[in-house]
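During the practical work, I selected for study one protein's amino acid sequence and its C-alpha coordinates, as given directly below:
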Amino acid sequence: MSRQTHRLTFAILALSALLLASVATAQAPNATVAAPLHDAGVVTRGDVVSHTFTIANEGDALLEIREVRPACGCTVASFDETIAPGATGSVTAELSTGDFRGPVSKYVTVFTNDLENPRFRLTLRADIRPLVDVLPGYGRFLHVQGTAPKVQTQTLWSTDETPLTVEGATSSIPQVAVEYRLASSEERSPEGPERQWLIIGTLASDAPAGPLTGSIRVQTNHPEMSEISVPIGGYVRPQLLASPPLIDFGSFPAEQPRKASVLVTSFADDPVAITGVETDVPGLVTEIEEQAEGRKFAIHLTLESTAGAGPFEGKLTIRSSNPNHPETVLPVRGSIQ
Protein backbone atom coordinates (compact mmCIF):
# COMPACT_ATOMS: atom_id res chain seq x y z
CA MET A 1 0.00 0.00 0.00
CA SER A 2 1.39 3.40 -0.99
CA ARG A 3 2.09 6.25 1.39
CA GLN A 4 -0.73 8.22 -0.25
CA THR A 5 -3.18 5.39 0.42
CA HIS A 6 -2.08 5.32 4.11
CA ARG A 7 -2.74 9.02 4.39
CA LEU A 8 -6.17 8.70 2.79
CA THR A 9 -7.13 5.83 5.11
CA PHE A 10 -5.98 7.79 8.19
CA ALA A 11 -7.94 10.85 7.08
CA ILE A 12 -11.11 8.78 6.59
CA LEU A 13 -10.75 7.20 10.05
CA ALA A 14 -10.15 10.57 11.70
CA LEU A 15 -13.17 12.08 9.95
CA SER A 16 -15.33 9.12 11.00
CA ALA A 17 -14.26 9.55 14.63
CA LEU A 18 -15.10 13.24 14.50
CA LEU A 19 -18.48 12.52 12.97
CA LEU A 20 -19.25 9.85 15.61
CA ALA A 21 -18.23 12.20 18.43
CA SER A 22 -20.38 14.94 16.97
CA VAL A 23 -23.38 12.63 16.75
CA ALA A 24 -22.84 11.39 20.32
CA THR A 25 -22.64 14.94 21.57
CA ALA A 26 -25.74 15.95 19.70
CA GLN A 27 -27.66 13.00 21.12
CA ALA A 28 -26.72 13.48 24.77
CA PRO A 29 -29.31 14.30 27.48
CA ASN A 30 -29.09 17.65 29.25
CA ALA A 31 -30.61 17.91 32.75
CA THR A 32 -31.44 21.44 33.90
CA VAL A 33 -33.27 22.73 36.96
CA ALA A 34 -34.49 26.31 36.90
CA ALA A 35 -35.24 26.40 40.65
CA PRO A 36 -33.14 23.87 42.66
CA LEU A 37 -34.04 25.60 45.97
CA HIS A 38 -37.52 25.85 47.50
CA ASP A 39 -37.97 28.12 50.53
CA ALA A 40 -41.19 27.26 52.38
CA GLY A 41 -40.84 30.21 54.77
CA VAL A 42 -42.24 29.92 58.30
CA VAL A 43 -43.62 26.42 58.96
CA THR A 44 -45.35 25.07 62.05
CA ARG A 45 -43.27 22.41 63.75
CA GLY A 46 -44.75 18.97 63.10
CA ASP A 47 -45.99 19.82 59.60
CA VAL A 48 -44.56 18.17 56.50
CA VAL A 49 -43.01 20.42 53.85
CA SER A 50 -43.53 18.94 50.38
CA HIS A 51 -42.39 20.37 47.06
CA THR A 52 -42.21 19.15 43.48
CA PHE A 53 -39.10 20.24 41.59
CA THR A 54 -39.26 20.46 37.78
CA ILE A 55 -36.45 18.79 35.82
CA ALA A 56 -36.08 19.74 32.13
CA ASN A 57 -34.28 17.66 29.52
CA GLU A 58 -32.84 20.15 27.02
CA GLY A 59 -30.78 17.50 25.26
CA ASP A 60 -31.48 15.21 22.29
CA ALA A 61 -31.39 11.86 24.12
CA LEU A 62 -33.51 10.27 26.83
CA LEU A 63 -32.66 11.55 30.31
CA GLU A 64 -32.59 8.86 32.98
CA ILE A 65 -32.97 9.66 36.67
CA ARG A 66 -31.17 6.67 38.10
CA GLU A 67 -31.44 7.47 41.83
CA VAL A 68 -32.67 10.20 44.17
CA ARG A 69 -30.85 9.93 47.49
CA PRO A 70 -32.22 11.85 50.50
CA ALA A 71 -30.09 13.38 53.25
CA CYS A 72 -30.99 13.17 56.96
CA GLY A 73 -34.45 14.61 57.66
CA CYS A 74 -35.53 14.58 54.02
CA THR A 75 -37.45 11.91 52.12
CA VAL A 76 -38.24 11.31 48.46
CA ALA A 77 -41.94 10.97 47.74
CA SER A 78 -41.65 10.25 44.01
CA PHE A 79 -39.67 11.00 40.83
CA ASP A 80 -39.87 10.39 37.08
CA GLU A 81 -37.36 7.77 36.04
CA THR A 82 -37.10 8.97 32.41
CA ILE A 83 -37.64 12.32 30.70
CA ALA A 84 -37.87 12.56 26.92
CA PRO A 85 -35.82 15.13 24.96
CA GLY A 86 -37.46 18.54 25.19
CA ALA A 87 -39.83 17.40 27.95
CA THR A 88 -39.96 17.98 31.70
CA GLY A 89 -40.25 15.63 34.64
CA SER A 90 -40.40 16.02 38.38
CA VAL A 91 -38.88 15.04 41.73
CA THR A 92 -41.05 15.42 44.82
CA ALA A 93 -39.21 15.78 48.13
CA GLU A 94 -40.59 16.03 51.66
CA LEU A 95 -39.22 17.41 54.93
CA SER A 96 -40.66 16.22 58.26
CA THR A 97 -40.27 19.10 60.71
CA GLY A 98 -41.04 17.37 64.01
CA ASP A 99 -37.37 17.06 65.04
CA PHE A 100 -36.24 20.54 63.99
CA ARG A 101 -36.47 24.08 65.25
CA GLY A 102 -35.50 27.34 63.56
CA PRO A 103 -34.03 27.73 60.05
CA VAL A 104 -33.08 24.43 58.40
CA SER A 105 -31.97 23.36 54.92
CA LYS A 106 -32.22 19.76 53.78
CA TYR A 107 -31.57 18.30 50.36
CA VAL A 108 -31.87 15.30 48.06
CA THR A 109 -29.20 14.33 45.54
CA VAL A 110 -30.33 13.41 42.01
CA PHE A 111 -28.18 11.01 39.93
CA THR A 112 -28.67 11.02 36.12
CA ASN A 113 -27.14 9.71 32.90
CA ASP A 114 -26.21 13.25 31.85
CA LEU A 115 -22.41 13.10 31.57
CA GLU A 116 -22.14 16.88 31.93
CA ASN A 117 -24.38 16.99 34.99
CA PRO A 118 -24.37 13.47 36.50
CA ARG A 119 -25.63 14.59 39.91
CA PHE A 120 -27.12 17.68 41.50
CA ARG A 121 -28.94 18.72 44.67
CA LEU A 122 -32.49 19.87 45.27
CA THR A 123 -32.90 21.77 48.54
CA LEU A 124 -35.85 22.39 50.85
CA ARG A 125 -35.53 25.32 53.26
CA ALA A 126 -37.87 26.31 56.08
CA ASP A 127 -38.02 28.34 59.29
CA ILE A 128 -39.61 25.87 61.69
CA ARG A 129 -41.51 27.26 64.65
CA PRO A 130 -43.66 25.36 67.16
CA LEU A 131 -47.11 26.61 68.11
CA VAL A 132 -45.81 26.72 71.68
CA ASP A 133 -42.12 27.50 71.99
CA VAL A 134 -40.03 26.12 74.87
CA LEU A 135 -36.55 27.35 75.75
CA PRO A 136 -34.15 25.73 76.22
CA GLY A 137 -36.45 22.77 75.50
CA TYR A 138 -34.56 20.26 77.67
CA GLY A 139 -33.23 20.02 81.23
CA ARG A 140 -29.96 18.54 82.48
CA PHE A 141 -29.06 18.12 86.14
CA LEU A 142 -25.50 17.44 87.32
CA HIS A 143 -25.77 17.08 91.08
CA VAL A 144 -23.80 15.85 94.09
CA GLN A 145 -25.84 14.32 96.90
CA GLY A 146 -26.23 16.55 99.94
CA THR A 147 -25.39 19.79 98.16
CA ALA A 148 -27.92 22.57 97.44
CA PRO A 149 -30.89 21.53 95.26
CA LYS A 150 -30.42 22.09 91.54
CA VAL A 151 -32.91 24.19 89.57
CA GLN A 152 -33.72 24.11 85.85
CA THR A 153 -36.06 26.69 84.25
CA GLN A 154 -38.02 26.46 81.00
CA THR A 155 -39.68 29.46 79.34
CA LEU A 156 -42.89 28.92 77.32
CA TRP A 157 -44.97 31.12 75.03
CA SER A 158 -47.43 30.84 72.18
CA THR A 159 -46.15 31.66 68.70
CA ASP A 160 -49.63 32.27 67.28
CA GLU A 161 -52.51 34.41 68.52
CA THR A 162 -53.49 32.09 71.39
CA PRO A 163 -53.11 33.79 74.83
CA LEU A 164 -51.22 30.91 76.44
CA THR A 165 -52.08 29.59 79.90
CA VAL A 166 -50.21 26.79 81.65
CA GLU A 167 -52.77 24.59 83.41
CA GLY A 168 -50.46 22.02 84.99
CA ALA A 169 -46.95 20.58 85.07
CA THR A 170 -45.64 17.26 86.42
CA SER A 171 -42.36 15.36 86.40
CA SER A 172 -41.84 11.66 85.68
CA ILE A 173 -38.78 11.78 87.99
CA PRO A 174 -40.03 11.61 91.61
CA GLN A 175 -37.09 13.65 92.94
CA VAL A 176 -37.83 16.58 90.58
CA ALA A 177 -40.52 18.93 91.90
CA VAL A 178 -42.22 21.23 89.36
CA GLU A 179 -43.90 24.62 89.75
CA TYR A 180 -45.08 27.15 87.16
CA ARG A 181 -46.03 30.82 86.98
CA LEU A 182 -46.16 33.80 84.64
CA ALA A 183 -42.73 35.25 83.91
CA SER A 184 -41.91 38.73 85.09
CA SER A 185 -40.64 41.35 82.65
CA GLU A 186 -37.06 40.62 83.79
CA GLU A 187 -37.51 36.87 83.30
CA ARG A 188 -38.99 36.92 79.80
CA SER A 189 -37.02 35.73 76.81
CA PRO A 190 -36.35 38.46 74.22
CA GLU A 191 -37.38 35.95 71.54
CA GLY A 192 -40.97 35.72 72.76
CA PRO A 193 -44.03 37.92 73.28
CA GLU A 194 -45.04 39.70 76.45
CA ARG A 195 -47.05 36.77 77.85
CA GLN A 196 -44.60 34.04 78.86
CA TRP A 197 -44.59 31.26 81.45
CA LEU A 198 -41.85 29.76 83.59
CA ILE A 199 -41.67 26.03 84.33
CA ILE A 200 -39.30 25.51 87.27
CA GLY A 201 -37.92 22.04 88.01
CA THR A 202 -36.05 21.48 91.27
CA LEU A 203 -33.99 18.36 91.93
CA ALA A 204 -34.00 17.34 95.60
CA SER A 205 -30.72 17.56 97.53
CA ASP A 206 -30.95 13.91 98.62
CA ALA A 207 -31.80 12.44 95.20
CA PRO A 208 -30.39 8.90 94.89
CA ALA A 209 -27.09 8.50 93.08
CA GLY A 210 -27.22 7.40 89.46
CA PRO A 211 -28.46 8.57 86.06
CA LEU A 212 -31.57 10.73 85.62
CA THR A 213 -33.90 10.07 82.70
CA GLY A 214 -37.45 11.35 82.30
CA SER A 215 -39.49 14.36 81.32
CA ILE A 216 -41.57 17.27 82.54
CA ARG A 217 -45.08 17.24 81.05
CA VAL A 218 -46.77 20.61 80.71
CA GLN A 219 -50.52 21.01 80.15
CA THR A 220 -51.70 24.17 78.35
CA ASN A 221 -54.89 25.71 77.02
CA HIS A 222 -53.59 25.74 73.44
CA PRO A 223 -56.10 23.87 71.23
CA GLU A 224 -53.36 22.23 69.17
CA MET A 225 -50.64 21.88 71.83
CA SER A 226 -52.49 20.80 74.95
CA GLU A 227 -49.51 18.84 76.30
CA ILE A 228 -45.79 19.44 75.86
CA SER A 229 -43.05 17.04 76.95
CA VAL A 230 -39.66 18.49 77.96
CA PRO A 231 -36.93 15.80 78.21
CA ILE A 232 -34.93 15.72 81.46
CA GLY A 233 -31.58 13.99 81.97
CA GLY A 234 -28.44 14.17 84.03
CA TYR A 235 -26.56 12.39 86.78
CA VAL A 236 -26.43 12.41 90.58
CA ARG A 237 -23.06 11.60 92.13
CA PRO A 238 -22.51 10.48 95.71
CA GLN A 239 -20.21 12.69 97.75
CA LEU A 240 -17.76 9.79 97.85
CA LEU A 241 -17.55 7.37 94.94
CA ALA A 242 -15.64 4.07 95.07
CA SER A 243 -14.87 2.20 91.86
CA PRO A 244 -15.26 -0.63 91.12
CA PRO A 245 -18.35 -1.21 93.28
CA LEU A 246 -17.47 -4.93 93.59
CA ILE A 247 -14.03 -6.41 94.28
CA ASP A 248 -13.79 -9.75 92.53
CA PHE A 249 -10.45 -11.56 92.83
CA GLY A 250 -11.63 -14.39 90.61
CA SER A 251 -10.26 -17.89 90.95
CA PHE A 252 -6.55 -18.30 91.72
CA PRO A 253 -4.04 -20.86 93.05
CA ALA A 254 -3.30 -20.78 96.79
CA GLU A 255 0.40 -20.09 96.24
CA GLN A 256 -0.21 -16.92 94.12
CA PRO A 257 -1.26 -13.75 96.05
CA ARG A 258 -3.78 -11.56 94.18
CA LYS A 259 -3.73 -7.78 93.84
CA ALA A 260 -6.45 -5.21 93.13
CA SER A 261 -7.14 -1.50 93.60
CA VAL A 262 -10.14 0.64 94.45
CA LEU A 263 -10.25 4.27 93.32
CA VAL A 264 -12.06 6.61 95.72
CA THR A 265 -13.11 10.05 94.42
CA SER A 266 -14.63 12.86 96.48
CA PHE A 267 -17.15 15.20 94.81
CA ALA A 268 -17.92 17.14 97.99
CA ASP A 269 -17.17 20.85 98.26
CA ASP A 270 -14.63 20.39 101.06
CA PRO A 271 -11.51 18.19 100.95
CA VAL A 272 -11.83 14.77 102.51
CA ALA A 273 -9.48 12.31 104.20
CA ILE A 274 -9.62 8.50 104.18
CA THR A 275 -9.42 7.72 107.90
CA GLY A 276 -9.26 3.95 107.68
CA VAL A 277 -9.96 0.76 105.74
CA GLU A 278 -11.31 -2.42 107.35
CA THR A 279 -12.12 -5.87 105.99
CA ASP A 280 -13.40 -9.20 107.26
CA VAL A 281 -11.64 -11.19 104.51
CA PRO A 282 -8.74 -13.20 106.00
CA GLY A 283 -5.35 -12.38 104.46
CA LEU A 284 -6.51 -9.16 102.75
CA VAL A 285 -3.91 -6.40 103.26
CA THR A 286 -4.78 -2.76 102.42
CA GLU A 287 -2.69 0.34 101.66
CA ILE A 288 -4.00 3.91 101.17
CA GLU A 289 -2.43 6.15 98.50
CA GLU A 290 -3.53 9.80 98.19
CA GLN A 291 -3.37 10.69 94.50
CA ALA A 292 -4.92 14.19 94.61
CA GLU A 293 -5.01 16.00 97.93
CA GLY A 294 -8.41 15.66 99.54
CA ARG A 295 -9.97 14.45 96.27
CA LYS A 296 -8.64 11.14 94.94
CA PHE A 297 -7.34 8.06 96.70
CA ALA A 298 -6.28 4.57 95.65
CA ILE A 299 -6.86 1.68 98.04
CA HIS A 300 -4.34 -1.00 97.05
CA LEU A 301 -5.32 -4.55 98.02
CA THR A 302 -3.18 -7.67 98.32
CA LEU A 303 -4.90 -10.95 99.09
CA GLU A 304 -2.70 -13.68 100.56
CA SER A 305 -4.31 -17.11 100.58
CA THR A 306 -4.24 -17.77 104.31
CA ALA A 307 -7.71 -19.26 104.26
CA GLY A 308 -8.55 -22.74 103.02
CA ALA A 309 -9.39 -23.61 99.44
CA GLY A 310 -12.81 -22.76 98.05
CA PRO A 311 -14.95 -19.67 97.42
CA PHE A 312 -15.03 -16.76 99.86
CA GLU A 313 -17.11 -13.63 100.36
CA GLY A 314 -16.68 -10.61 102.61
CA LYS A 315 -16.66 -6.84 102.62
CA LEU A 316 -14.30 -3.89 102.53
CA THR A 317 -15.26 -0.83 104.61
CA ILE A 318 -13.71 2.52 103.68
CA ARG A 319 -14.05 5.24 106.32
CA SER A 320 -13.76 8.95 105.53
CA SER A 321 -13.88 12.35 107.27
CA ASN A 322 -16.94 13.38 105.23
CA PRO A 323 -19.82 13.67 107.77
CA ASN A 324 -22.41 13.07 105.03
CA HIS A 325 -20.66 9.94 103.76
CA PRO A 326 -18.62 8.51 106.65
CA GLU A 327 -18.25 5.01 105.20
CA THR A 328 -18.46 3.05 101.98
CA VAL A 329 -18.95 -0.71 102.04
CA LEU A 330 -17.88 -2.81 99.04
CA PRO A 331 -18.49 -6.56 98.61
CA VAL A 332 -15.43 -8.79 98.14
CA ARG A 333 -15.43 -12.26 96.60
CA GLY A 334 -13.19 -14.83 94.97
CA SER A 335 -12.17 -18.45 95.03
CA ILE A 336 -8.93 -20.14 96.14
CA GLN A 337 -8.04 -23.27 94.20
Notes: Residues 3-26 form the longest helix (24 residues).
